[in-house]
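[User]
Protein folding is very new to me. Any chance you could explain this protein sequence and its structure tokens? I have pasted everything here:
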Amino acid sequence: MKKLDVLTPIGVVVGFLFVAFAIISNAGLTGFSSFIDLPSMLVVIGGLIAAMLVSFSIRELKQLGKVMRESFRDVEYDLHDLIRTFVTLSEKARREGLLSLEAEVEMVDDPFIRKGVLLAVDGIEQDVIIDIMNAEIIALEERHRKNKSLLDKAGEYAPAWGMIGTLIGLVLMLKNLNDPSSLGPNMAIALLTTLYGSLLANLVFLPMASKLAMKTEKEVFMKQIVIEGVIGVQSGQNPKILEEKLRVFLSHEELQLYSQSGKERTLQDEA
């Protein structure tokens, strides 16, 4: 189930707030306006857009908004429920045969689980099932890699264009060396583009790319568990053995919670 990942917007807002606080605490509210310069913003944002247009196709760039939205969403994976699902499927398969799972698996929400179990029901060989499901994982990783590359490149280009803006400002400043009073203000404006580019890269694009990478790792990890579960069901493993096999994917804390929930279910069944 997808839900809002509140840490992403909180992190971005907190980052900008601390930067704003640092500025205001040293320069005051009146000095805050010194850090706002429209030409500097245009250099960074315009250069970033231009570089992205050169690097990617229109079709790929259309995915940028969707990719950024994904960093604001989180998918909940319930490992405990996943293990219980395969234990239940294994028990039913041993009692009634693999064909009985065709109706059972329709109630499972995860399409990857459904696909794997249906391949097993169709009598596909174990090695072929593993190859098919691993191929889907590889395709998923490749899609996510391409999407993440949009944010990676934006994170590379933003500070680079900030530096270009600074160089432009320095050139203009050096042309006015005959006016010493203008050197300080002009130098400050020249450095603003570097500030803007660094903020965009290190507070928006690169952190979002890192979060997407972590989500991909989590999704691939879950799918690897699914493959182990499907193969266990297909090979007719004892449900208890399959459960122990899948439990190794749980962390120490998750294992304790799983064991506790199992005891609670046993007590409920006895009652």
Observations:
- DSSP finds eleven helices and two strands in the chain.
